[in-house]
Amino acid sequence: MKKLFVILGILLVCDTYAQQMKPLFNGKDLTGWYSFLKSEGKNNDSAGVFSVKDGLLHVTGKEFGYIVTNKKFNDFHLVAEFKWGERKYPPRENRVRDNGILYCVADSDRVWPRAIECQIQEGDCGDFWLIDSVTLIIEGTQTQATKNTRVAKKKDNEKPTGEWNRLEIIFKNGKCTHIMNGVVVNEGTDASLHTGRILVQSEGAEIYYRKIEIEEL
């Protein structure tokens, strides 16, 4: 009987979690997002850089740019599941595969807008990139307000290229937490941004997303 109650408790927690998380990517189309490509501008993806097929968001990486939510978010818990494809494109055809999720994105369509980035790059998943003078406090020290500031992850918990990874971003009262496959790999506090859109990059490498969902905190 005790074992049954434990199982029921776990199922209840899982069901509650599922109800709280809402899909940002619906698995069918890009409703709720708009595209921006460096070469084409807003909502002009003639090259098919971003597409949806068989429930997956496919990002070719051929053009630099992004899709970004129409909606802005304050405090949230974001979950994304991704895996790398095979193709790479200039100018990064001979470099590690690169992508990223930006959050607290400012209202300025360019490559790249002012935001906090959770890096998705082979070997570097979970790094911070603080774009356009954004600052954080990391282990008691405030970062410099530069064009692009990198704060490397403290742990490595990526799966091999070609396997699915689970990335979580928790943003709460200016505190940023990056989680890779269940392990906290980077944290910062006192973010100089507090609200904005959520953005998925295209940056020279093919990548697939099977889940992007969010809980507003």
From TrEMBL:
Pfam families: 3keto-disac_hyd. Keywords: Signal. InterPro entries: AL/BT2_dom. The keyword Signal applies. It comes from the Bacteria. Residues 21-215 form the 3-keto-alpha-glucoside-1,2-lyase/3-keto-2-hydroxy-glucal hydratase domain. Residues 1-18 form the signal peptide. This is 3-keto-alpha-glucoside-1,2-lyase/3-keto-2-hydroxy-glucal hydratase domain-containing protein.
